[in-house]
Amino acid sequence: MATITERPLTSRLRQDREPVLAEEYERAGGYQGLRAALRMAPNEVTDLVKRSHLCGRGGAGFPTGMKWSFVPMGKDAPHPKYLVANADEMEPGTFKDRALMEGDPHQLIEGMAIAAYAIEADIAFIFLRGEYQLSARRLTQALAEAYERHYLGRNILGSGYSLEMYLHISAGRYICGEETALLNALEGKRAHPRAKPPFPQVSGLFGKPTIVQNVETLCNLPHIVSKGAEWFLGLSPTGEGGTKLFGVSGKVKKPGLWELPLGAPLRELLEEHAGGMRDGTRFRGVLPGGASTDFLVDEHLDTPMDYAHVAKAGSRLGTGTMVVLDDQTCPVGMVWNLEHFFAQESCGWCTPCWSGLGWTEKILLAMEEGTAVQHDLEILKFQPKFMAPGNTFCAFAPGAMEPLQSALKYFGDDFQRHIKEKRCPWR
Amino acid sequence: MAKIFVENKPYEVDAKQNLLHACLSLGFDLPYFCWHPALGSVGACRQCAVKQFKNEQDITGKLTMACMAPASEGTRISIQDADAAEFRRAVIQGLMLNHPHDCPVCDEGGECHLQDMTVMTGHSHRTYNSPKRTFKNQYLGPFINHEMNRCIQCQRCVRYYREYAGGDDLNAFRLRDTVFFGRAEDGVLENEFSGNLVEVCPTGVFTDATLKHHYTRKWDLQMAPSVCTHCALGCNTTVGERYGSMRRVVNRYNHEVNGYFLCDRGRFGYEFTNSPARLKEPMMRGAVVSKSAALESITVGGRAIGIGSPRASLESNYALRQLVGAERFYAGVSGAEGTAVAAALSILKSGAVPSASLLDVEQADGVLVLGEDVLNVAPLMALRLRQSLRNAPMRAAKKFNIPPWLDHAVREMVQDQQGPLFIASPYATKLDAVATATERAAPDDIARLGFAIANAIDRGAPEVAELSEETRTLAASIAHALLGAERPLVISGASCLSTAVVEAAAQVAWALHRQGRAQTRIAFTMPEANTFGLALLESKTLADALKEDGIDTAIVLENDLFRRAPEHLVREFFEKVPHVVVLDCLPTLTTAAAEFVLPAGTAAETSGTLVNSEGRAQRFLRAFVPSGSVQESWRWIRDIAVAGGRTDCAWQTLDQIIAAMAQDCPALREVPEAAPARDEAGKIAREPDRYSGRTSMLANITVHEPKPPQDVDSALAFSMESGFRPAPAPLIPFFWAPGWNSIQATNKYQTEVGGPLRGGDPGTRLVAASVQAAEYFREIPAAFRPAAGEWLVCPAFHIFGSEELSRHAPGIAELTPKPYIALNPVDAEVLGLHAGDAVQVTLDGVTGVVPAILRADLPRGVACLPAGLPPFEGCALPSPGKLALAKPEFSVRGTP
Questions:
Q1: Same domain for B92 and B193?
Q2: What is the pLDDT of residue B396?
């Protein structure tokens, strides 16, 4: 049984914030996972990951091993197959993948090589957020080292398996983080999402089988392969398996990022790790997993932060990087800020999203400026229904509605005050 | 088939389709925007939401986009469901946030799909009170007007333009509710099918810029079914008139011919009809005379000849042939063209491979083009050919259970894969970009390649002597690809004026057929709208007529002889023939030289039959009665005959002359089947129910409303009143259904969406393939050897410019190229020529000076002149010619 303090993903990160490069990485046990994986059959790696219950850390939480099992395998499978690391971390309030890439780039490369081996991929891409310039430099350096040391390229470590890995720096846009929009962007097309089915596992990048996986998810793989599925499952007190990078921003005393067991209680995170609210402010709510998750409030503070418990509380674990709302900040203004972001980032493909978010943003601004009328609130309340899952082309707009619908639920009076007082009471 | 339940009632639908397609085919009104029957589903607009239930017990259900869900067995949906209806209203509300309230001044108003769908969903009250987003519009050329503020971001324009038509200068820019659909900068849209944006756009973003010059609402147009006369494909069109002028052309759906689309020449070439230069009254030696004076002065005796025309109707050609006698009737085309076309016709009659409809072209999965610039000669064939290239790779998508209608999923899987397409032509063509392999060669070498392919397919076909190893390898790989196709297609035609090329194409098709490819088709492009029909009359050609002596009267039907033969030969002809009568719609060098000129009607003003390059006879009906003395040529010929006391040419109605023609000419026996006769259909209104101002249109002249003209030629009436029977497909004057005012009403006229029109698609095939296979051709030309100091001057076709009538439309004229001669840079060096230099070209006895352009794609010894354009429009190309650097006295800036 592992101890609760184990931090496989971040234990190597240096205090001086310099990257862990190849030599240091190897000394600390790096690339042992890849070596072990290459001794296994690809389907054995997939089985191991399935047994570990590793779920996607990008927000949706889909079981990783199961995702891989949909990839056509064997002699008749179409090639080249692709593995893509989704490093387009653009969720407001989220900065966890950045820490992993800047601090320990080889961990990602090793994880990718393992995943690629499991699905017999020929080519891998790191799709990196354009603004992550430091990550780009460090990944470029690490890739060169990995090629030099035969962790990448032809006949990796003499195993007969070959993998080419490329770093692609995104030209921007939040929607590129949606896995199918990411594939369109990588193909040089407009980044709007694709219809599913067919799923990328069958017809993905350039029409070939493709797995898109979040950076943090991939970084777990070397450890799972090295230490086993049982070890991984044991890391989490709630049984969902593994650790999670949690971040807290907002008016807390010590905003930051910590690797904790999946299922750590929300209260522990906010009060112990983030040091509680700043003096003179009071906690009102928190977006637990980034901007596109529902607010949780006081009553939810004892929720264990894992997929199932957060869902039960009415929100989503999302990226696990939370934004705290305090009583000195206008909730309407905060929601306006978020919806403004989402409206800006709508790819413009489906009507509910591009029209609904545009209208939502304008009504919230009108509230902030004191020009909103009562009927506007009705229109605002209708938007989450209009942009409900299934009504839109992808999950972007339903995600964008999560902070709005929960704010309307928990902070309804604040919205009313904006209309009645014809101003923002916080200004 | 599958059984689905709509509102709990069972219906049989096509299981291979999606629910939107199924619902529309069943006649339900379900609104949509991003889906288009030719473009498939992408799920962008979310307008076609329905409630879907898991089973009979499920009463909650879940919203589903009908266009994205398969119509699989047992599917249960509700269109009327309150949640679905509310969501659809909300989608329209969303679309309307930024849509301007400008219907009264919008060109689309009255035939706007957005208007129709808005009314259909019941969204009528606007609550949005923030500013609307605005854009700067672009200049997109003479055909398309751009008004981006009206955009509802349905994505259809870019999907059509880029993915369907292969254009790349229209794109989507920016994001959120400010996506901009346009070009990177102002400029003429480059794609030859840009006009379809007018119909593809569900609202008024892309509208017909030529219509804007003389705007009329759809409901105020008097309309009729017509056939495009600007190439030989015979695309079906709807033409509209108001106040005696032609206002516009829109597509008239014909599943087997043009489907949903037209080319820009066909859509925008119509303005020649309104040309101020039109001939309106009879003329004698340059002076206007009365009709009776003209008719009295024309005598047609035993020494008269008739010169027919490939751009005149079958009826007019037949009338002239009857007037002068079959022996003295000449097809008004060059000898070389006559021979090449006759060869094609004979192949279609005697061979076992039938000619391809344009639908067949779209369904082909392996294509060989021999000697044709398909895009510029038969534009719409190129558009449908482009779609065919997806057939082979799409089979792969089927393996992964991706239905063909799930458009982007298929495109994402198929990516850039294209089915086999091989193009052999004298110069590089635009379709080369999607070809598997191309070959640039002189016509004789193109023929040799064809014969070599046939030999590689079937060793029973004769071998080609002295074939290079390179050509042999190419032929073998093409043969291999064509044999691998289920529906191979060979495209050729008269563009090279080479019987050998035509025969080589047939040889390939026949070889495939003998190798058991029963679905093989052959498509011959033809030069003009009725080339095929004229050829069916099996006459001598103009070349023979020009040689005749002892002619006292020549009657020239809708033909400019100066485009058919070198000028000096035509001049000689005019000198030796004392009386020349010319019937035409526009002044030409021929009308200028004629003693008598009689004003002929254009397709929009007359009724008749044309035979397209497939061999399909199609009826076109007049939209309006032309002004002045303009009438059908066959009526002028009848009048000449009657004035001369003849009783055998006294046809009074179109049906009478068609019946006579069908009786006299066995090849035209089926022509009456092209469309129902006048008394076979009930009265059909040319004017929509809401046609306005009928009683006041002429009120400035007289307050007494004149009796509307009677149409003795068809069941169509110059009226708003129809009988009770629906119009048979060939007589549909315009597509309209209650609640469906836009062209999308086509859905309501089809057996199923995207399928044939109810009652069968218009037209009747006049030529059937033979049951028995024909013998292989044995005569194979020798390889092309450029003679020293001589060039083989080939025609380079231009969609805008090469066709005679459309050039009189201002928009087309604007895009017509300036004269040039193109040659290989190496050849130019031999001549000491640089790009832009004036070149003296001597060809067929004609000399002219044109600037040089250099094209590396041209084979050595081959030069190209723009087809149908001065100064060499009378020369039959290809033809050997001499080129020389023009001497300074030929310089343009020189003064006499």
A1: no
A2: 74
Q: How confident is the model at residue B398 (pLDDT cuts 50, 70, 90)?
A: confident
Q: Does A7 touch chain B (CB under 8 A)?
A: no
Give me the residue from B63, B179, B414 closest to A390, CB to CB: B63
Q: How many residues would you count in chain A?
A: 427
| Residue B160 DSSP symbol | I
Q: How far apart are CA A269 and CA A324, in angstroms?
A: 12
> What percentage of chain A reaches a pLDDT higher than 70?
99
**Domain topology for A22-234:** Rossmann fold (3.40.50)
Which of B441, B421, B420, B419 is CA-nearest to residue B430? B421
Of A259, A222, A236, give the one whose Cα is nearest residue A49: A222
Q: Which positions 109-168 of B are in contact with A (Cβ < 8 Å)?
A: 127-128, 130, 152-153, 155
Fold classified for A331-421: de novo design (two linked rop proteins) (1.20.1440)
pLDDT-derived band at B896 (thresholds 50, 70, 90) equals very low
What burial class does residue B411 get, using C-beta atoms within 10 Å of its C-beta: 0-12 exposed, 13-18 middle, 19+ buried?
buried
User: Taking a C-beta distance cutoff of 8 angstroms, is the pair B852, B835 a contact?
Assistant: yes
Which amino acid does the sequence have at B114? L
Q: Which of A323-337, B212-226, B564-578, B875-889 has the lowest mean pLDDT?
A: B875-889
Q: What residue ranges do the domains of chain A occupy?
A: 22-234, 243-326, 331-421
| Domain at B601, CATH number | 3.40.50.740
pLDDT tens by residue, A232-247: 999 999 989 999 999 9
pLDDT for res B211: 98
Give the one of B87, B172, B400 whose C-beta lies nearest to A202's C-beta: B400
Is A393 at the interface with chain B, CB within 8 A? Answer: yes
Tell me how far apart the alpha carbons of residues A177 and B861 are, in angstroms, rounded to a whole number: 57
Mean pLDDT, rounded, for B443-461: 98
Helix, strand and coil in chain A, % to nearest 5: 45, 15, 40
Q: ipTM of this model?
A: 0.95
